[in-house]
Amino acid sequence: MSFDLSSFSLEGKVALVTGAAYGIGFSIAEAYAKAGAKIAFNCRGKEHMEKALADYAAKGIDAKGYYCDVTKEQEVAEMVAAIEKDLGTIDILVNNAGIIKRIPMTEMACEDFRQVIDIDLVAPFIMAKAVIPGMIKKGHGKIINVCSMMSELGRETVSAYAAAKGGLKMLTKNICSEYGAYNIQCNGIGPGYIATPQTAPLREVQPDGSRHPFDSFILAKTPAGRWGDPDDLAGPAVFLASDASNFVNGHVLYVDGGILAYIGKQP
Ligand code: NAP
Ligand code: GCO
Fold it and tell me: How far apart are CA 39 and CA 54, in angstroms?
């Protein structure tokens, strides 16, 4: 079959991006809409929902928003059923919803560790389990798990998050292995350090007006010498959701400006 640029199109596809009221999820959903997909997203709070719907509308995107805590199986089942009724069977799932808790491991309460694992690892399992039957019936599907630098590397204070994102990389490979025969491709996308609310504490300007030490650290670790923008993920995410990647499966595509390849700027 000869290559055609239309293989990058998402025309007529139904995409669910979890936690896409803002941040990385919003940028991925916006890119999918521009590529032709019908957009569904979820969040938990009324305020975030109302602002997100207005932000999507301001960009000419008729996104459908659903209240759903992705850790709750019943809420997920109801959301998927509602999306199938409103838009049709889900063709593309992006497991984007996620949290981080930055606490030294020996000071971290077990319930904090469990909450991060629940949202960042168990929820992608719950979401995938809910959409795969429809994808099998339809004869195709795309699942994209939002991994992290911490799928490959550790650092102080993020033990739960690294454990979750490391596990998410392996869940990605296992969904690939178990459902590839049904023409379902499951890949990861691994953002580097991206400027969103989640990383805002790491970029806070210091009282003396200087950069946060972690901000300077990341600039030195990134060949591009900058933090990523959520829109840097748009093209790679469209590729992984499109027919252009139908023989890419179980892969984690890092969109990190080169962090994983670079020892860091010499002092
Ligand atoms: P963010 O700005 O904190 O947004 C996280 C989103 O997840 C919010 O929309 C939030 O919605 C939603 N969410 C959290 N828990 C949820 C739950 N239980 N049910 C439903 N929605 C929930 O984060 P971000 O920076 O955009 O990150 C998005 C994803 O990329 C995360 O998985 C993160 O781990 C990953 N990531 C981020 C970076 C980075 O540098 N920013 C790099 C690599 C990977 P609510 O408003 O309802 O809380
Ligand atoms: C941190 C950051 C990172 C990023 C991202 C990197 O505290 O180290 O929040 O975890 O969010 O996951 O890829």
Answer: 14
Domain count, the chain: 1
Task: Tell me whether residue 97 is in a domain.
Answer: yes
Cα–Cα dist 117/131, whole Å: 21
Q: Which of 41, 198, 219, 254 to mutate to test the pocket of ligand 1 (most atoms within 8 A of CB)?
A: 198
Catalytic residue among 32, 66, 161, 254: 161
203 in any annotated domain: no
Pocket-forming residues, ligand 1, beta carbon under 6 Å: 18-19, 21-25, 42-45, 48, 69-71, 96-99, 119, 146, 148, 191, 193-194, 196-199
Answer whether residue 5 is part of any domain.
Answer: no
* Catalytic-residue membership of 67: no
Q: Which structural domain range is residue 152 located in?
A: 10-192+228-257
> How far, in Å, from the CA of 23 to the mean position of ligand 1?
7
Q: Residue 109: which CATH number?
A: 3.40.50.720
pLDDT tens-digit profile of 78-87?
Answer: 999 999 999 9
Could you tell which of 28, 43, 221 is best to mutate to test the pocket of ligand 1, judged by most ligand atoms within 8 Å of the CB? Answer: 43
Dist CA 235 CA 233 (whole Å)? 6
Q: 218 and 251 in contact (C-beta within 8 Å)?
A: no
Domain membership flag for residue 141: yes
pLDDT, tens digit, for every residue of 115-132? 999 999 999 999 999 999
Stated pTM of the model: 0.98
